[in-house]
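Thread title: Can someone regenerate the structure for this chain?

I was given the following input by a collaborator and told the matching structure tokens would be attached. They weren't. Posting the sequence so someone can regenerate them.
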Amino acid sequence: MKTLGYSLVVVGVWSLAVPAAAQCDADGDVKFVCGPVSPEDLYAIPDSPWIIVSSMVDDGNLYATDTRDHSSRVLFPNATSQLRRDANMYADCPGPIASEFRPHGINLRERSNGLHTLYVVGHGAREAVEVFEIDARAATPTATWIGCVVAPDGVGLNSVAALPGNGFVATNFQRPVGELWEWQPGRGWTRVPGSETNGPNGVEASADGQWLFIGGWGTQSLIRLSRRRTPLEVEAANVGFHIDNVRFAPDGTLLAAGHVGATPEAIFACLRERQCNGVRSRVVRVNVQTLAVEELVSYPSSETFILGTVALEVGNELWMGGIAGSDRIVRFPAATLPR
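Best answer:
Regenerated them for you:
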């Protein structure tokens, strides 16, 4: 395993006001994209320079971040946002998002014509997967709300992944035992067999839908679970930290991002009280065939970036989003991506 570590010198207190230009200054060879608050999840729109960012705060937004100049603009909701409900596909959706949108996990059903389907775990006024059409054919992408799927009673959604066809799978982050749920049009929600685990967080699905890859927050492992196979196949790769989101890299490996502290309670104290001594953000690369693990990043919590939640390869950089009010995405240099 190869590790690239970084250190920060933290000066002052958490409430210290820093001029905007200084706030986005590089930390040595680590740079930032500043703007979106609590950028919990990231997804690259294929064949475009744009990254979709979910800002996980009350009345949060979806952002589109330009990888060329690192500027960000609100993708939804904005003054030109459109609503066009697909009543056939999402017949049980009670209506458009009215208020209190708190976007969380995101995933894209990629298509080759520049029109994609975006799934967004939303909290706030309702617990649901909100569905958008992303049009990336113009100079800047647009998002049109087309429907929703309300969560089953008692389920707190976290992450979502598209499945072949028009269905998706989502995680119910519960400790000590949570599970995954699958939704298919016309059939609704079903519990995913064999998915019960301690704190299932991020999720991705293979292109053929035969395998699910689950970020085990409570188990500190990347779990590979077969889908619709008899007998079920379940294997796990221990990573030594609490995995939040997982995201495919261009070479087909998985990037698993999350955080580690002395105890889970130390993580929650870092979130609530900004008491983050010893808490670090981590990223590993996992081979989906062998489950071999290669560590890429170990980055300390600071007053400007608290807990890492997702990693994404962007050109020759590794980007990491986070939560707890951080107003930046971290950009690690090419040396972070050993082969």
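The longest helix spans residues 264-273.
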